[in-house]
Amino acid sequence: MEQLRSIELGGLIEADEEQLCISIQRMQYLHYLRLNSQPQFALKLDALPSAPPYLEKLFLVGKLGKVPHWFNTLVNLKFLSLQKSELGEDAISHIQTLPNLVQLDLAKNAFVGEHLCFVEGFKKLQRLYLRGLSELKEIVIEDGMMPGLKELNVMACKELRQLPNGWKHQTHLKAVHLYDVSSELVESICGKGMDHHPTKPFILLTRTDDEDEAQVESKWVHQILN
């Protein structure tokens, strides 16, 4: 078991914490870890002193309440998915320091604040997924943050009224996916009348580069895919 490179465990309860953390600590070659708690139980991981050193993909499903103290040891992590974590607005300050993170997925109230602020770090992040964050009203991405961001996905964040200021000027951003968002957000992109669309529209925004002799200008176009 100590040689495992991948493991998924479900149905966890709080009483499993000590033995679970002892077992994970012994898996020094682990690259992929997925943990799911039972719905009525928190996902307790505080007894883990540090993460497996080669861990690249981490999926945590269950209430955490706070970012585990060992997150700063996830130096090789590339993919992070958090679901039902109920993390507060200070959680991002612990995630932003992960030096090799390429994809971040916050889903099903993994984050429960109104303001999601990205002010530091995320130097290598390429894909950001925000799904089912019921309280989210504002996303802030400071200038110079996420310089490598290529794809932004926002789904079922119904209190969100607009995309982050300056999103059009993210140098490497190529696509924005929107689904089941507020009519205000849809209309800010597609214009009036979209609230009468017969189904929840899936909107894809893509960047096109128009070249002429004097300059290269980026433009954004939207497509309604259903």
UniProtKB/TrEMBL annotation:
Domain Disease resistance R13L4/SHOC-2-like LRR: 7-178
Name of the protein in question: Disease resistance R13L4/SHOC-2-like LRR domain-containing protein
Keywords tagged on the record: Repeat
InterPro entries: LRR_dom_sf, LRR_R13L4/SHOC2-like
Pfam family, one: LRR_14
